[in-house]
Structure formats: C-alpha cells, structure tokens
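Support request, please re-run this one:
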Amino acid sequence: MELLHFYNRNLFLLVFDCSEYRRRHMALYGSHDIFRADNQQGSAIRRQSAREAVQDAMLWLKDGNSVAIFDGTNITREQRRELSDYCLNDMGFRILFIECVCEDQELLERNIIEILHYSADYKNMSEEEAVDDLRKKLEHYMRQYEPIDAGLETISFVRVENMGETVTAHKVAGQKESGILGYLSGMRCLPQTLYFTRHGESEYNVLGRIGGDAALSPRGQLYARALADHFNSLPAREPYTVWTSELRRTKQTAADIRAPKRAVRALNELDAGICEGLTYEEMQERFPQEFAWRDQDKLHYRYPWGESYIDIMTRLRPVLSALEDEHNVIVVGHQAVLRCMLGYFLDAKLDELPYMNVPLHTIVKLTSYGYKYKVEMTKLPVECVDTHRKQPKNCSINRTSADALTTVPSHYDTLPSNLWQNSAEAQL
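Re-run finished. Output below.
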C-alpha cells in the first residue's frame, strides 16, 4: 500500500495495489503463466488477492477517509459487476472505474521499459527474459479483456486513451469524482525533470530571523553566482524556465541564470504575521504561548494575522497543477514553501512536511519515472548557516525558555564583516 497525498485536489487517497497482495501469497514471481485464464491455481491466488485488497479499501473508507484506489485489472464485465455490487450495494460506497487504453506503440514500449525497471516481479530476471514474460502476460490480459461498454454496463467510468490524449467520462457525479476527472484530464505521463532550490543565504538567515524581505548576504550572493554557473554550463538540450517568489532574495538568487523568469506570488514564504522578522529567541520572549502551540502542531498552527502550512498548501494548488505539465523548471523558493512542494511530489506524509530538511545552497533535482520521482541533491560549495530546526521534545506552554530554544539553530547577533571568508574563520 502506498499513501498519496493529493492535497492539491483535497483528496486524501490510499492505493491498494492488487499486485502487492498477490506477492504476499507467492514467495517469488514465477512467470506469466499465473495470468493464464486456464491456470486455476493462479486464478485462485489472484481472486484472493483482489478480495483482500478490496476489503482493506473498504475498511479504510469506513474509518472516515475520502478515497480508496483499488489498483487491479478488472478486465471482464463480470469482475466489474461483482466489484460494483459489493462496493455500492453491500458497502454503500460509490465506485468509479478508470479504463486505460493505449494503442500508441511508442507509449507502450516506453511503459514496458518502465515496468521492467521498477516492477518487483522482474527484479530477478534478465532483461530479455523479462521482456518476453511481460509481453506474454499482456497477451493473456488481451484474450480475456472486455472493454467497458456503457450500453451493457450500468457503471460510472472514465476512459483514458493513450495516456491522456483523449479522456471521456460516463456518469461522473459529485465533487470527488469531478476532481478525479480533472486530475486525469490534466495528467502528464512524459518524462519530467524539475529543480528546486532555496534562495541564497539572506541577511535574515544570518541573524536567525524569519520571514521578511531581506537581501542576500555576501555568501548568498556567492551562491547566486555558483547557481547560475551550474545551470548555465549544463547542456542546453531543452530551455529552462525559472520561477521565483515575489521576494527579492529569490529574484537576486536567480538573476544570473540565463533563462526566462517568472515571479509567482503563490511561491512567497509563509507569512509569520505578528512574528515576521523576529528571531526564535524573541518569539519565545514575547509570545511564549504561541511558540509552544506552534511546536505542538506545526502543520496546522497559524501565526496570528499570518499563515499555516495548510494555508501554503491551499495557495500552492494551481502552482503544483501547472508544474505537473512542465519540464526543466527551476523553482527558486523558500523553506516552508519548498517543503510543501517537495512533499507533494515525493508523497511525504503531511505531518512530516514542517520538519523536512531543505538546506540552503543545495539543488534538489526531481526526475520522474512512471508516477514517482527520483531525488538527487547537489550541495554547492558555498558556506551558509543551517536554518533547520527540529521539533523540541518539550512542547508544553509551561516549559522553560531553555527547553523551548533547545533546537534553535545557531546564528549571528549582528551581520559580521567577514562573511566573505570561510565559516571556520567567522565565529558564530
């Protein structure tokens, strides 16, 4: 099972993959024979696996969750009828079938390659054996496959042809199903590369202050040049575009990258309200109760007259939707915003987002494979402060200042004149 947080659609999903359940009943995948229609033992294992996956999906929904995805083939009308009757009539949950049809040979070949690389079934096979096995498995499916027919089946469905080239819908109703239809209509299945980096070290980072619209520190300016050198020297196979926030530290960081630039308001850093420009020490001194409440639930905590992480997710929805259709985009952003963006693409758990470590002077490269992303992190050789703060163990409103400030990163009290030098020469 894999948890996917589609917070850009307000749909919280859990995927129940029938193949994973099938693997629990088999010590090792043998061959395509398990998918033959006349293989009684294989058919029994696959039916049992499907039942277990559906039952777990129903338990997930009965616990009050929004959407469950049963990832199985359901290639015959009888299978779809039984599944529909069980979910709708017996359990009381609406069901929407998604039929994926692909007749584009180039897309099919690319999909076969991805399956070979990432499917657990083929990790112990040679490439030649795996290709042969997978093609025969697909032949077994095609012999049994009965296309969804609105004239013969009373079910709700969406048909996606050639990975989104054409999308049709039948009996789609309600906000959730409409949201799923919208997601499928905008789905991009082509290989994708995205780059994320925080702005260079700012003067506020040096002083341990949050928010604001500070300029880059001298070391932040060095990072901006190093960042430009990095991207300007890469082979220009496809043009880059650069997205920044409206704040000057991101614009200064991206200034020398030779690519079109776009300032996006939704990429602005989390608004700290009455705490804008304060250090953590000052927050503890002036607003100790607020500081404790934030540590207790950083995800939902909203600064007075400011924002929460949930608010950031809400305003990022159109940005994330747009990024799903882009390639070679460099996002120069801020710590809280990039935590939410990276969490979205990497399917991080929501309660992990506020504590993800997104260090300064580091490029995060995401490369898609299938519907997942590979992460590569490149730290450029420019010194900077560490702004990552772990959650303290004591989050009580009655805690001492020492307990509250235990995990606060080190910072300077004033801007030193030797920031051009190596950090070993500049004392904190």
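The CA atoms of residues 183 and 208 lie 40 Å apart. The chain has 14 helices and twelve strands.
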